[in-house]
């Protein structure tokens, strides 16, 4: 924009607005492989809150999957022409909507991976259904993807709110923490988490001593932290359903008010490796949470993590591993059925049992397309035990796949 | 009773941040008739300043509490000279819009450099314990924050009442037409006062770093609450802004403590409800005078 | 409270009204511009990804609604996302639960936004200038909190999904066809805005903007006029928000966030305050630019939108439409000489 040359600006604007190819509905002819190639789309947050958790490194994870797939099948590979298209949805569902449609229509993506942020995740499920193309959601947390919003072309891969809340609430209670004080952000995610969490605690024989909704977003949790030790009976654990920056605020203030010293432990509903990194393990030592995958769990994971680090310079989160796994399993399915025809690939995947670096005891449920697998109860190590960057937790317990996820919802009709 | 006292004290600590930010907004508004949308962004820069000084230069909290506000004050003065100055003769809305654009830029610059994940910052070594007040104990750091904010407000009050520059600022803020009519030269104080207001926001940011999440958006939602605070107090009144800051902190703490279980929606929107009531009852704010039509 | 009024400081008064300039333009030019505008509107989804074209329509209406307040009443609302978003939710809920043709749902949504604007406007118009901006911003934030909390109705952060798009059994699933179904509503909205501005009511608004004390002295109930303008503006913003839901077939909390309010004001300033049609241009540019940026791999989107905003405010306060109108006026003046 220059000072007075409005006309120049207008013509530039006209160019900008029209600088895009023709429109109208399009269709493509059927063949063994559409356009003789496979295009994997990755739609995620590349600049916002989820960019470190997943973001561009998930695109690289998908590229790793392609390389491994080609290496495995050598000359018998279905096609050499496999590419990745990625786009940034900025966590905005309206942008996700346009991007997803464009990926499927214009960039001939056969499948879309990742898509964090519940509203965007659900929107893309809608697009996948309309376009009749595959969609593996990795980083969306909402159980609606396999509930009301489930459809034939959508698979929910890594985790969901039920897995997180149930895993932590149940396992920690079973391990001896009976009295709970729960704080949750007062919006749908927090309300869902609180319901699943409280139910899990009570089923395992625990008691909810108190629970409070907190504003969202919120940078001051002191009222609730003051209240926690004064409850009667005194809670053993503060269960927090906060996420992201709210979680960081809460943990900082939890330490400030010295609740651990006052005998109130901390258990977190939703926490990622990147959260521990930014809070420092020292601030979280002893905190328990449920993880979908951990890079230093066993030798197999560690080997993947080492290769991942060579490509990206950092350790993988569960989201990176899950994107890798989903891309690999999609390609294997296409190889197996010999076509990228969506309906045939879906039919092949439904009910399939899988074991790979991410999915342990994995199974793709045919009823609701929930991909179930083992989950893990993790505890943040004390600072003294952290000897390697990113190796912040120890796994206390493996939660078996069948227990980790809710049974198929009655709301889901394919 | 000790519970109530504890929540009250806690409310004052929360209010301390509102008060420091509202005070900066009020003195800037007083001198320049500018509502600085970027105030929240400068608060964020203050927290990041502390983080950068600690991790990249090794300067601890105490050093940051001096250096960061001073540096941000200078940055504010430069911005005032370079840009804001050009717009002050126009409708105040233009500076509101300018500082809104500035907010987007500052947030995005910090985000592209440090990411959206919160950056770690721990409580300074000397302030990690708790203070025992007899009826209740409270984290030492929070007591320090409250003390700092009260001292800062008292210091500003002393400046306003005992120095020439203070009287000019007060006159310009509370009786703008009269000040101009008396031919008092306000112009030469404009830039330093703008810098001073920004420095206060920066100090609030440094204070926030050990107890809140340090990330590029930490000031974004806060500034809207602070706007409500100054509407309640009356932006034309420096005292009113500070009083409303502490008052809203108290009301929020009480609301969260006693209404969260019964009426969470009320507890979470109290500040806006108070603002609506004040607009009905005293549109110019609790301590404000009827504004000159702008 | 009496005081002298500095008329030159009103944001709309600092720029020569582009609308006035166009209105003074020869009749053939006005019709030509109208014809070109309609032609572009009809062609748009052929040159652009249709979903983006629909977004442009919605934002154009939103921008015009804000300019009605900002440019012609002198009130800058920094909280119009409250009306855009409320209508979006109301439209979505009506469409989901009542199954009515989509224009009916959109109209219902806009009416809900207008009803909400009555109490909020009643409180907000008690303040003017910068205070008005702050008050509207704060109220919009309150609406955001409530919608976020009220997950059972709004779907919380999941948003309302799978909003049906129905019009007498026509298949509108394709964005390309939906664009043409939505276009008449947008044109009606724009025409209404034009009619309001060029009515006696609109002239009183401009009078209030330029000199509220005089308008009051002449016996006009200033508050009531402002409130009416506020409600009308909320209705138009609601039309845009309702169509936006229909375009995306879902609505999320973003629609209520203060960044949406801010973006709408950017669009107006970019197009030209007080020009009415400038907002349409501004919407086209910003929506297209954001779409392009999110594909370009360029990560600092806030830097670009913020930068554009700062530059426009500092150097280019007339906006695009205002600048072109001023240029055209100068050119014609020089020819006449």
UniProtKB/TrEMBL annotation, chain A:
The record's keywords, sorted A to Z, are: Signal
| Pfam families documented for this protein | Peripla_BP_6
Q: Which InterPro entries match?
A: BCAA_transport, Leu-bd, Peripla_BP_I
Concerning SUPFAM superfamilies, the annotation shows: Periplasmic binding protein-like I
Q: Does the keyword Isomerase apply?
A: no
The Leucine-binding protein domain covers: 38-381
Report the domain of life of the source organism. Bacteria
**PANTHER family for the chain:** LEUCINE-SPECIFIC-BINDING PROTEIN (PTHR30483), PERIPLASMIC BINDING PROTEIN OF ABC TRANSPORTER FOR NATURAL AMINO ACIDS (PTHR30483:SF6)
- What protein am I looking at? ABC transporter substrate-binding protein
TrEMBL record, chain B:
What organism is the protein native to? Micromonospora zingiberis
Which GO molecular function terms does the record list?
transmembrane transporter activity
Pfam families per record: BPD_transp_2 (PF02653)
**Where is it localised?**
Cell membrane
GO biological process entries = amino acid transport
The molecule here is called Branched-chain amino acid ABC transporter permease
Q: Which UniProt keywords apply?
A: Amino-acid transport, Cell membrane, Membrane, Transmembrane, Transmembrane helix, Transport
Q: Cross-referenced InterPro entries, in alphabetical order?
A: ABC_transp_permease, BCAA_transport_permease
Report the domain of life of the source organism: Bacteria
Decide whether keyword GTP-binding is in the record: no
Instruction: Point out the signal peptide segment.
Output: none
Topology term for the membrane: Multi-pass membrane protein
Q: Which family does it belong to?
A: Belongs to the binding-protein-dependent transport system permease family. LivHM subfamily.
Against CDD domains, the record matches this protein to: TM_PBP1_LivH_like
List membrane-spanning regions. 12-30, 37-54, 60-80, 92-110, 141-160, 189-210, 222-251, 263-281
An example Gene Ontology CC term for this record: plasma membrane
Family annotation (PANTHER family): ABC TRANSPORTER ATP-BINDING PROTEIN, BRANCHED-CHAIN AMINO ACID TRANSPORT SYSTEM PERMEASE PROTEIN LIVH
TrEMBL record, chain C:
> Keyword Nucleotide-binding: yes or no?
no
Give any GO molecular function from the UniProt entry. branched-chain amino acid transmembrane transporter activity
One GO cellular component assignment for this chain's record is:
plasma membrane
The protein's matches in CDD domains, at most eight in alphabetical order, are given as: TM_PBP1_LivM_like
Main localization is: membrane
Q: Has the keyword Membrane been applied to this entry? A: yes
Membrane-traversing stretches = 28-45, 51-70, 130-147, 177-197, 227-245, 265-289, 301-321
Question: Which Pfam families did the record assign?
Answer: BPD_transp_2
Annotated localization: Cell membrane
Q: Which UniProt keywords apply?
A: Cell membrane, Membrane, Transmembrane, Transmembrane helix
Q: How does it sit in the membrane?
A: Multi-pass membrane protein
Name assigned to this protein: Branched-chain amino acid ABC transporter permease
């Amino acid at each position: 924009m220059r000072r007075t040359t409005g006309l120049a600006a207008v013509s530039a604007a006209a160019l900008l607005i029209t600088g895009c190819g023709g429109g109208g509905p399009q269709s493509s002819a059927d063949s063994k492989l559409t356009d003789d190639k496979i295009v994997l789309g990755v739609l995620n947050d590349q600049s916002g809150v989820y960019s470190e958790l997943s973001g561009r490194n998930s695109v690289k994870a998908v590229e790793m999957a392609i390389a491994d797939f080609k290496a495995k099948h050598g000359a018998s590979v279905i096609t050499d022409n496999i590419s990745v298209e990625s786009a940034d949805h900025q966590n905005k569902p309206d942008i996700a909507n346009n991007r997803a449609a464009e990926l499927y229509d214009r960039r001939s993506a056969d499948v879309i991976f990742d898509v964090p942020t519940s509203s965007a995740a659900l929107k893309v499920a809608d697009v996948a259904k309309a376009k009749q193309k595959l969609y593996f959601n990795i980083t969306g947390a909402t159980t609606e993807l396999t509930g009301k919003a489930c459809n034939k072309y959508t698979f929910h891969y890594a985790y969901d709110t039920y897995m997180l809340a149930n895993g932590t609430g149940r396992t920690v209670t079973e391990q001896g923490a009976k009295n709970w004080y729960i704080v949750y952000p007062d919006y749908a995610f927090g309300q869902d988490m609180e319901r699943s969490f409280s139910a899990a605690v009570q089923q395992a024989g625990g008691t909810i001593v108190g629970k409070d909704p907190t504003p969202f977003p919120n940078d001051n949790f002191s009222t609730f932290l003051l209240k926690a030790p004064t409850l009667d009976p005194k809670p053993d654990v503060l269960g927090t359903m906060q996420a992201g920056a709210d979680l960081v605020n809460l943990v900082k203030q939890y330490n400030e008010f010295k609740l651990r010293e006052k005998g109130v432990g901390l258990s977190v509903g939703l926490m990622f490796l990147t959260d521990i990194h930014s809070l420092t393990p020292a601030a979280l030592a002893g905190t328990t949470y449920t993880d979908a995958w951990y890079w230093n769990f066993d030798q197999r994971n560690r080997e993947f993590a080492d290769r991942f680090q060579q490509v990206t310079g950092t350790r993988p989160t569960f989201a990176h591993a899950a994107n890798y796994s989903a891309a690999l399993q999609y390609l294997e399915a296409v190889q197996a059925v010999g076509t990228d025809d969506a309906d045939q690939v879906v039919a092949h995947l439904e009910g399939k049992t899988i074991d790979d670096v991410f999915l342990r005891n994995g199974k793709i449920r045919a009823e609701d397309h929930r991909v179930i697998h083992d989950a893990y109860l993790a505890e943040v190590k004390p600072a003294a035990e952290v000897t390697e960057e990113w190796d912040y937790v120890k796994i206390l317990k493996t939660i078996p796949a069948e227990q980790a996820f809710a049974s198929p919802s009655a709301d889901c009709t394919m | 009773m000790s519970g109530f006292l504890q929540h009250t004290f806690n409310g004052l600590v929360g209010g301390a941040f509102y008060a420091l930010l509202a005070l900066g907004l009020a003195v800037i508004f007083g001198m320049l008739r500018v509502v600085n949308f970027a105030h929240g962004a400068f608060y964020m820069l203050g927290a990041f300043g502390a983080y950068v000084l600690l991790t990249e230069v090794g300067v601890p909290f105490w050093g940051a509490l001096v250096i960061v506000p001073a540096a941000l004050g200078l940055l504010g003065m430069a911005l005032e000279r370079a840009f804001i100055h050009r717009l002050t003769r126009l409708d105040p809305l233009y500076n509101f819009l300018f500082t809104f654009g500035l907010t987007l830029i500052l947030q995005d610059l910090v985000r592209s450099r440090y990411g959206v994940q919160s950056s770690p910052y721990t409580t300074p070594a000397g302030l990690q314990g708790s203070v025992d007040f007899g009826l209740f104990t409270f984290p030492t750091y929070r007591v320090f924050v409250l003390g700092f904010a009260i001292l800062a407000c008292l210091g500003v009050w002393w400046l306003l009442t005992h120095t020439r520059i203070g009287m000019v600022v007060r006159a310009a803020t509370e009786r703008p037409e009269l000040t101009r009519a008396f031919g008092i030269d306000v112009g030469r104080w404009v830039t330093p006062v703008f810098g001073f207001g920004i420095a206060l926001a920066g100090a609030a940011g440094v204070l926030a770093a050990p107890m809140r999440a340090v990330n590029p958006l930490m000031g974004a939602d806060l500034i809207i609450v602070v706007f409500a605070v100054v509407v309640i107090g009356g932006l034309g009144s420096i005292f009113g802004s500070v009083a409303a800051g502490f008052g809203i902190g108290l009301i929020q703490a009480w609301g969260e403590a006693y209404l969260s279980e019964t009426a969470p929606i009320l507890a979470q929107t109290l500040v806006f409800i108070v603002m609506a009531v004040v607009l009905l009852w005293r549109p110019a704010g609790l301590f404000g005078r009827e504004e000159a039509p702008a | 409270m009496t005081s002298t009024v500095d008329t030159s400081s009103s944001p709309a008064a600092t720029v020569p009204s582009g609308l006035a300039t166009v209105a003074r333009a020869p009749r053939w030019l006005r019709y030509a511009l109208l014809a070109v505008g309609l032609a572009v509107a009809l062609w748009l989804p052929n040159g652009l990804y249709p979903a983006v074209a629909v977004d442009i329509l919605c934002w154009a209406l939103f921008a015009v609604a804000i300019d009605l307040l900002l440019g012609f009443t002198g009130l800058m609302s920094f909280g119009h996302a409250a009306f855009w978003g409320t209508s979006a939710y109301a439209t979505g809920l009506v469409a989901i639960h009542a199954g009515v043709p989509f224009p009916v749902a959109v109209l219902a949504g806009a009416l809900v936004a207008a009803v909400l604007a009555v109490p909020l406007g009643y409180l907000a118009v008690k303040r003017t200038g910068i205070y008005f901006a702050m008050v509207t911003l704060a109220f919009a934030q309150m609406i955001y909190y409530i919608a976020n909390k009220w997950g059972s109705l709004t779907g919380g952060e999941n948003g309302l999904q799978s909003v049906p798009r129905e019009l007498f059994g026509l298949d509108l699933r394709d964005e390309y066809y939906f664009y043409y179904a939505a276009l008449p509503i947008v044109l009606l909205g724009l025409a209404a805005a034009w009619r309001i501005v060029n009515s006696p009511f609109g002239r009183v608004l401009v009078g209030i903007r330029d000199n509220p004390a005089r308008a009051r002295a002449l016996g006009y109930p200033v508050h009531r006029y402002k409130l009416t303008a506020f409600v009308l503006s909320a209705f138009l913003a609601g039309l845009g928000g309702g169509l936006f839901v229909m375009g995306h077939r879902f609505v999320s909390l973003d629609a209520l966030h203060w960044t949406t309010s801010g973006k709408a004001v950017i669009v107006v300033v970019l197009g030209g305050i007080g020009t009415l049609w400038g907002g349409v241009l501004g919407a086209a540019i910003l929506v297209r630019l954001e779409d392009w940026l999110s594909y370009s791999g360029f990560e600092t989107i806030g830097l670009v939108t913020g930068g554009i905003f700062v530059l426009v405010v500092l150097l280019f306060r007339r906006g695009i439409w205002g600048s072109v109108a001023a240029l055209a006026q100068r050119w014609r003046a020089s020819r006449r000489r």
